[in-house]
Fold this sequence. Notes:
Radius of gyration: 47 Å
Largest sheet: 12 strands, mixed
CATH topology of the domain at 19-178: Triple-stranded beta-helix
Strand content: 25-35%
Mean pLDDT: 77
Number of helices: 4
Distance between the termini: 110 Å
Structural class: mainly beta
CATH architecture of the domain at 19-178: Sandwich
Number of strands: 44
Strand order of the largest sheet: 20-23-24-25-26-27-28-29-32-33-34-35
Helix content: 10-25%
Low-confidence stretches: 227-243, 428-470
CATH class of the domain at 19-178: Mainly Beta
Shape: flat
Amino acid sequence: xxxxxxxxxxYFDRQFLRESDFKxxxxxxxxxxxxxxxxxxxxGVAEGLKVSKSxxxxxxxxxxxxxxxAYDSLGREIVLRTSLGRDLSxxxxxxxxxxxxxSPLYLSIYYDEVEANPSTDPGTKGNTRILEKPEWEERRVAxxxxxxxxxxxxxxxxxxxxxxxxxxxxxxxxxxxxSVGDDVIVRSVVLKKDGVPPNQQPVLTCGGPSQAHxxxxxxxxxxxxxxxxxxxxxxxxxxxxxxxxxKETGLRLFGGLVNNAIRAGFIDVCTLDAxxxxxxxxxxxxxxxxRMRITAExxxxxxxxxxxxxxxxxxxxxxAAGWLNGGLWANLGSNSFFDGAWKRIDAEKPGVNLHMSxxxxxxxxxxxxxxxxxxxxxxxxxVFGSTTSFISKGxxxxxxxxxxxxxxxxxDVATTKLHLLGTDTQLSGFTDGAGELFGYHWITCGTTGxxxxxxxxxxxxxxxxxxxxxxxxxxxxxxxxxAIAEINGVLGKVDGIRGVSFELNERGEPDDRRxxxxxxxxxxxxxxxxxxxxxPAVGAGAYKGVDYxxxxxxxxEAVKALHAENKELKRRLEILEQKLSIG
Length: 583
């Protein structure tokens, strides 16, 4: 069993040491060193291990790896003491014909250990050393194992295998580093890079209380953020190249140059009056065209330098908010906005506005409002809300711009349930949308409780037949039927079907506006046991229904069977009566 504590060898006088003791001593030091490497360093190349093409004659398929050290993700050291040449002529080769050499190749290094140096002592067997050595892998894909460290990506001629290029710092080549805790306290940080002289390497130090001092230039993403001309005489300001174009001290940020010659634009702050403020200028010519402004009053303009509402886009489009009719309304307008009162940007033009509210006296609402330029009073063209909805003077149209009825729908209407609350409701054009299916739909009249059924037209080529009436009528013409067979033995089956009276529960009648009344019918499960073809699935297959029209055929046959039995019993009774009268 693995101990939960670290055990270190302890030595004392006259102690007898065995092989396991020496191995435990080595394991202790290896574990501690690798734990240190793993926890306090990031894995990768620590030094050297640079890969290059061989320039030696006859070694066009060789690469050279310089000496170096790396750490894998387990903290094991991978050490190459001397330069090593690797011949890649036999690696990833398709023998063909013709012979083809795969390219590119990903060269990686990993840790391995083997026993070596057999013992020469008489009567003993075993190796006296363990070699910790680097091993190599060349594959067509980058290594997925974090303990296989990528060194280079090699390109070679597919025809002869000669090395043509070596990418010495490819994506995926990691450099070993240092892992530190949450806080690091140092006197200075020197940022080094190969080829940069020590006196030109940037240094980050503490310049004073709450100050970080950088000696050098800060570059972000290849561009420069430079602070060459800060003016200590104006506290709180940040300068990028001077004062504003109105000669006012403030913030000005230049966007650099296009093609090293044309100003791309700039952002500045000018507050000489309330209409000024933050200005964004972008132009491929001289950078002087203003595109956006945030005034000192808090108004935002896009495409205009004179916004008069919360957000104005170019000349007439506005977005604003304000309190109206007891609630906070947001509005989107063209030449119309609300700012404590309804206003227009251009008084000579009409305006329209969509304003919305999630609270207030009218509840949640959307209102479309129009203001005329000739002095006529404004008009709400449409209102959609939680308390009221209307369009075009109380008539609501869908699919038509000229509604003639309270609800005027020009087109098809699909619904899963339709409640008719009036006593004189009329319906027409009742189909299933496709017009090719034969079926029926129940419609319930809420005030009378009567049920209507509508039959849609027959399949293609036959005349339409739509019927709405109390009760149920189904087409039953002999000319429409085939494979006709009589129903036999119905009396025994009918015995298992009960006629019951009942009330629908909340699942059967979820509409609590309708009164619960007792009804008469049968139980679908009992009918299904005797006549499964009379029990279709209803309610998306969740429940069972009964084809009462088909059930009447069963009852007809049952009555006929009873009638036949009654005739037979009557005949036998007459025979018995004759015999009794003779005797």
